[in-house]
Amino acid sequence: MSIADPDCVFCKIVSGDIPADVLGRNEHAISFKDLNPQAPFHALVVPVDHYANAAASAAADPAILGHAVALADEVAKAAGNDDYRLVINTGAGVGQTVLHTHLHVLGGASGMTESL
Ligand code: 5GP
Ligand code: ZN
To answer: Which residues form a coiled coil (predicted)?
Structure first.
């Protein structure tokens, strides 16, 4: 059983209750295209278990972030992005809007956006 919050949009994507453009998934995490892309390639990687931010996920089990980075590398390279950025926002003050740990995977010529 995974840890879920019934009010969380990313938990609803994990469970399939709301649709997403899925790029890859495994037992630990799911990756899908960001609804509002900030780079030519912009995916999100969302660990299956609901924690509010990366530090909370790491405190629960450091392997959560390791699995997420591995899936990010897989989906970036599958889309032809050998080079990419990973961004993790923590807190509303730097723009975190969804309080479920997620990695932004940014690739392509405009991958250096400062908007994330
Ligand atoms: P944050 O600002 O919290 O780091 O990033 C949240 C990201 O999730 C944003 O880039 C936003 O576009 C994306 N997002 C929010 N809701 C949805 C959704 O329902 N579907 C998808 N695919 N992306 C979403
Ligand atoms: Zn959640």
So the answer is: none
